[in-house]
Specification:
The protein is α/β, with parallel strands linked by helices. The chain folds into two domains: 12-172, DNAb Helicase, Chain A, CATH 1.10.860; 194-482, P-loop containing nucleotide triphosphate hydrolases (Rossmann fold), CATH 3.40.50.300. The chain has helices at residues 12-22, 26-35, 46-60, 67-76, 85-94, 102-132, 138-153, 164-181, 194-200, 219-233, 247-259, 263-267, 274-287, 302-315, 338-356, 388-392, 402-409, 417-426, 472-482; strands at 208-213, 237-242, 292-295, 319-325, 360-365, 395-401, 438-448, 454-461, 466-468. It has a nine-stranded mixed beta sheet with strand order 3-2-4-5-1-6-7-8-9, with helices on both faces.
Length: 491
């Protein structure tokens, strides 16, 4: 019987995908350098080893890695042509995969290296047997090679286990990359609000963010503002799932917000003057350039939402944020107990955020018990239907508007910071475009798994569905007069 021949285990496409992505994304570069070595590459294409060596050399000097830097490094090493020249480097760029998925290709390259080592050790064991003919101590021979096989197999990250060294070096590289490109301390998707960024540093990859409020407080309007800010400031694609409002209704709010034209005017545009029409047309032109994708399927089943989110991510690698309005309207078919159903939904949304490495913002209602709290200020126990929402969330933001409770229950505590800020707005001390409909809104960061907690203040223009940051000097003066702390200010 003819002996079966084995080719050298390798996946050249995975090697190329990793190298190409490392040259265009700092986080991917950090992961690759922490997980791979020159010998991890198969050697079937020596160009890949030379290019990895160049990347490692550049990063070792703490210089940014990009295609031109790699070209310069190869030129200095007198091996640019041996590494395939400019044409091969451009070919690698065409194989770039999503930076969020590069770890999958790194694992493929690593697994092939482990398999090569394993087969080489098998050949060594067979060669020793052929050379010796027979062994005086077969047990010693078997034990020695069994141990060596186990050591090789242990290099493979079975079950996705990674050593402390690998994880620590990955974090080190990521922190170095983030420190170079971070602006104003923002390492995630820009929220669009200075005070909120100081607590979150932007919406972080893999995080589930819950924004909870009683009905009519403004959580949908706030979510729309956050989605537009992410698309504009971070230049990312955004998915907006609305189970309650149509895409057209949401778009009218965005137009109102961007054009500074009231929602009432948009309902009956026949009376709009030329100036407002010009503002609307300009806003629509600007909005049309944003990569925001709407799905307004009523009461969308959870499975359909998850499938659509993954499909959109596959089509748009730059998908940077998913917004869901709202969690309590999602449903599943196989769980009759609502508490278990909500638990399954929140866990699924958390898994979606982690697997796609995208922040997911889900709106949530607070239960009626919040109305009985002192001044109606909500707390985590007021999250409706299930405590699992709080447990699964990385961030929980609770919204509160005192004027909402003033209207429901009469005048509340007039000594609070928000009351003083509202008073300054009403008296015209705070510059606003529409003081009559301006309402001070508190956003309490009640849970922050990776940071500190506190309260941010916003001015909510109900006419424009717009949230803005209060004037810094007004915030400071109120704090000084009332001897009350406010969030740290950017100096």
């Amino acid at each position: 019987m003819a002996q079966k021949s084995y080719s050298v285990p390798a996946n050249l496409f995975a090697e190329q995908a990793v190298l190409g992505t490392m040259m265009v994304d700092p986080d991917a570069c950090a992961m690759g350098l922490a997980s791979l070595r020159e010998e991890t590459f198969s050697g079937l294409d020596m160009r890949n080893i030379l290019i990895f060596r160049a990347i490692a050399s550049i990063a070792g000097r703490r210089e940014p890695v990009d295609v031109q830097a790699v070209v310069n490094e190869l030129l200095n090493a007198h091996c640019l042509e041996e590494a395939g020249g400019n044409s091969y480097l451009l070919d690698l760029i065409e194989t770039v995969v999503s930076p969020d998925n590069v770890d999958h290709y790194i694992k493929i390259v690593s697994d092939q290296a482990v398999l090569r080592d394993f087969l080489a050790k098998m050949d060594e064991a067979k060669d020793e047997y052929k050379k010796e003919g027979e062994f005086k101590d077969i047990g010693e021979y078997l034990s020695r090679y069994s141990q060596q096989f186990m050591e090789i197999a242990s290099k493979r990250s079975v079950g996705e286990f990674r050593t402390a060294e690998v994880v620590a070096k990955t974090v080190q590289k990521i922190l170095e990359a983030q420190s170079k490109r971070s602006q104003n301390g923002i390492t995630g998707i820009d929220t669009g609000y200075t005070y909120l960024n100081q607590y979150t540093h932007g919406w972080q990859k893999g995080n589930l963010i819950i924004i909870a409020a009683r009905p009519s407080v403004g959580k949908t309007a706030f979510a729309i503002n956050l989605a537009v800010n992410a698309a504009k400031r971070s230049n990312k694609s955004v998915a907006f799932f609305s189970a309650e409002m149509s895409a057209e209704e949401i778009m009218k709010r965005i137009v109102s917000m961007e054009a500074h034209v009231s929602g009432d005017d948009l309902i009956n545009p026949i009376y709009l003057d030329a100036r407002k029409k010009a503002q609307i047309n300009e806003a629509i032109n600007d909005i049309s350039t944003l990569q925001i994708y709407f799905d307004d399927t009523p009461n969308i089943p959870l499975g359909e939402l998850l499938a659509k989110a993954r499909k959109l991510k596959a089509a748009h690698d730059d998908l940077g944020l998913i917004v869901i309005d709202y969690l309590n309207l999602l449903s599943t078919e196989h769980l009759e107990n609502r508490a278990l159903e909500v638990q399954y939904i929140s866990q699924s949304l958390k898994e979606l955020a982690r697997s796609l490495k995208i922040p997911v913002i889900a709106l949530c209602q607070l239960n009626r018990a919040a109305d009985n709290n002192p001044n109606g200020v909500p707390n985590l126990s007021n999250i409706r239907e299930s405590g699992s929402i709080e447990a699964d969330a990385d961030l929980v933001l609770l919204m509160y508007r005192q004027d909402y409770y003033n209207n429901k229950k009469g005048k509340q505590d007039a000594s609070s910071f928000a009351s003083k800020l509202q008073e300054s707005v009403d008296q015209g001390k705070q510059e606003t475009s529409d003081k009559a409909s301006m309402s001070v809104t508190e956003v309490n960061i009640a849970k922050n798994r990776n940071g500190r907690m506190g309260t941010c203040y916003f001015l909510f223009s109900k006419a424009y569905s717009r949230f803005d940051t209060p004037d810094k000097e007004m915030m400071r003066s109120i704090a000084e007069v009332n001897k009350q702390p406010i969030p740290e200010l950017d100096e």
